[in-house]
Amino acid sequence: MAVQAVGGRVNESARNLAYINYALLFSSVFFAGVPAVIAAVIAYSQRDDASPQLASHHNFQIRIFWVAFGLALAAGLCFLGAMLNVASEVYQVTSLDSWSSREQVHVNLADVRLDRTLVALIVGTGLFSALGGLWLMFAPAIGFIRLASERGMGHSAGS
Length: 159
Hints:
mainly alpha
């Protein structure tokens, strides 16, 4: 546990660091998730030394990071699957007359099919990306509001 300094400076700086973490998590939507990694590292390093109320916020910040990471991973896997599906379709309709020049490669895009798997992968990419973006906007905002009102991130409304 952190020792309470004269005037509460240790507790105040720990609270300010939690505010900064919420700001980093919120801004990670706009900076490809890099600030979220920084916020998670800070939260992991501070949660053992924080008061129970601030520790609950650090645990919530870690949870925000891992949920967003999982959603981004799911979106990335769907996108990779969609790209592999498109590459497979293009490969199937490509004819190669000779290896001498690029002009000998013919792709007939009229033969490319848009099947259910590709549509599902594209929809999955968009859905997981949107959910991750919304999560990174609203979850830190809720945590920030609860921290500003000096409430922990417990399961009950009174905590």
